[in-house]
Predict the structure.
Amino acid sequence: MTRQAILLVNLGSPASPATADVRAYLDEFLMDPDVLDVPGIVRTLLVRGLILNTRPAKSAEAYAKIWTNQGSPLVVISRETRAALEAAIDVPVGLAMRYGEPSIAHGIDELLARAGTVDDLLVVPLYPHYAMASTKTVEVAVDAAMRGRDIPYRFLPPCYDDPGYLDALAAKLRAHIPADNQFVLFSYHGIPQRHVRKMDPTGAHCLRSGDCCSVASEAWATCYRHQVLATMHGVAQRLGLASDAYGFAFQSRLGGGWLEPFTDKELAALPGRGVKRLTVVCPSFVADCLETLEEMDMRGRETFTAAGGESFTYVPCLNDDPAWIAALGDLCRKAAAVPA
């Protein structure tokens, strides 16, 4: 009988909001060649010669605003998700972080220690949309950590258009949108445009035309922009939103040449377009974290209000919502039925 196990992998977090811990975390994160995809010597000069001299202190202040007695919200919520999923599907479920602790190697060791003999490992990157700097880097790191282990493993594909995921996200929004809301902004984590092009297996589709995300292509399997738009339209359809009552933007950019429009610019401009009552949701994150709690619910709220906005509603991430756990469990069950 096949002995299955599941490993959830999320982004990770500093060990604490102390500047030294934030610096160590940012060093590991930004030195990843799939995150900052420039030649190694250039990456070293940028990260260790420039960014780590200024950014850790600022980021530490931001982390301190959201830190809980239990630790980083992302790590705490990921642990709760792991426990809820394991209880729901009765299969050993482990947890690892791409950066920080528990590392992927540590997470695999802990899972195998609990599960015993495993001959079918399903790795679940906790990202609904495929991106070079999130999904791909998990795949690369898991491949490295599994080297020398005689255990078949595979990856769960992104769930951006899965009906269960979309239903759970729509229900979350429905529970939080005020009756007098005017507009829903779907804010996704930004990525460089070059990452989208690099992940295009055809080399000739993504960002090559204005309608590339609506023209069917094998590139869709790894196209972040197509996938986030598909999520937005799927949720909007479930909520019955008019086409002029919702839109999208990209947050957390670092440098030029990133996907547009930019969330901070949109938040500043929407009141001038007559949108005074706004709801914001961040579907590229399944667990609340620095980018949702501090960047969006705090700084984003301030930006919108300062520009003349009157009502700003932030919709929490799916976290360990029962509907999301059920959808994730269904995805894992379906994947388990597929031969490795």
Summary: The first strand starts at residue 4 and ends at 12.
